UniProtKB/TrEMBL annotation:
<feature type="region of interest" description="Disordered">
    <location>
        <begin position="369"/>
        <end position="389"/>
    </location>
</feature>
<protein>
    <submittedName>
        <fullName>DUF3828 domain-containing protein</fullName>
    </submittedName>
</protein>
<feature type="compositionally biased region" description="Polar residues">
    <location>
        <begin position="374"/>
        <end position="387"/>
    </location>
</feature>
Amino acid sequence: MFNSKNLLIGLVATSISFSMGNITEAIAQVSNRYLSDQEIRSLEPDFDVAALGSSRVRAYTDIRSASEITQVNNFANAWAKADPSISPFLGMWSGWEESYSFYPSQTKGQICAVLTFYDEGGTKQKISIGRVTGDKLLVSGDFGKTTFIRKKGGLIRKQSGVAVPDQKTDIIAQYTTVGSRKSVFTYIFPTRLQEIRDRRFADLGCTASLPSQTQTQSPTQKHPSESIVFDFYTWYFQNSDTYRRTLSQKRRAFTPELYRNLDRAIRISEMPRWSGILNFDVFSNAQVGSYSFQIDSVAPKQDSAEVYVTLQTGLGYSRRRPNPIKVLVSKNNNRWQIADFVYLRDSPNIYSLMSILRGINQRQDFNEIPWGNHENTPSAPSSSTPVRPTDAIAKYPTNEDFKKVDRILRASRNPASLVNLKGNQQNQRRKFQREWESRNPAAAKFLGSWYTGNKSFYVYPSTAKGGTCVVTKDYQGNLTMQIGTVLNRELRYGGGKGFFWIDRENIVASRDSGNGDLYPIYATSEVPELPASIISDMDRQKCITTLPF
């Protein structure tokens, strides 16, 4: 049964202003992506435990009156006429240590999610914006990305003092992930939403009121271009961290010319030599997080339309800013498709995605890189770029090349001082490499973290002899992974790039991507936090996702 503290969290008055300060450690952890359908299904046993209570004997008491139940049901039913997709989630749902309140929004398909929790100093609240897609509510905010689904649960209730199972209780299940840990939490017993007296609540278009008569009237038919753009951005927000790898899922949403240019430019940008060539999110025109979108207006023409969209982007939810984009949609063979994205934020300096893609794809540097065959649905571009041994830059260095890099090191007086290993870290690195000498002797000496200037390289071991996975981090912190192969004193990866052993512990050489000259790379103790997409790629290549530190 809920104790007084837990009960209060479900019924607390919502006139408290939103706190942007520190929150408890448990709540503060950020979920960096939405769970996939398969991952959600795998958590079904955890959902049963969360619903029943870890001991499966915990009993819940529904203290709501019949009037309170009627009020929340009437509120949800009223909004079902105006926006049926959001109505199943509406209400204030109680958890053991916090509650979630889901408010309707003036933007169709959008929900305002308010988390209420205890922290030092009392009760705090945080607001996030969510969008309903299918049976899921996808919420993105200060706590990262989380998925909510309304379900029926096997709750244990008390009847006449006896705990009995109940399979009919409505439950909101919250699915989240932090690193490799996936979790599910449950919220029950919804009550009527309370007004929130905070300007930001209103500014976001949130409301605790019943829908207006205009909202409940049958909506006018949308222009097809609006539906295309709405569906695309709904997909994008589900896949914003991995869209470059899964873009083929939305191939038919684009004109053939846009998809063809975008696919090739993405493949070029995944090569280490050109990793900075498309260094922004092409669908948000940003290098920061995206939190929500809304369609502002549509300007239809005969066989085309301009759809004006505003995204909220920023370095953190509390620092988000409007980011306007004009999406050009055209009609081709009775199918409406996206033809271009025009970035309006830096007006009057307006430019479009197609102009950027053409500028990349027309460069002579890339003449040898093939265009994709898009007659049939292509496979998603992989972040693992195969080795091309015919690449001129991949030729093994001459003796003169090695002498040049040796002169660079001698000129620096004390090159070992540039090795970023402290205390016992050098011994840890040696031990890690020696452990792999028997399993992968050729690759062992290259294993570990390396750096030069504003770029870092992380060489992971593979159970395939001579194989490695090389993860590169550019100056903006973006990670890419390439398959590596060791041939005697050379580690070659991604389009013929590579490291060369120069008989100095903790220092190797690499080639300049422009003139081909060798330059030194130094050992470091830094270890990256790998996203799920790269971990998945590494698993397929039989790589181990651990480094010495």
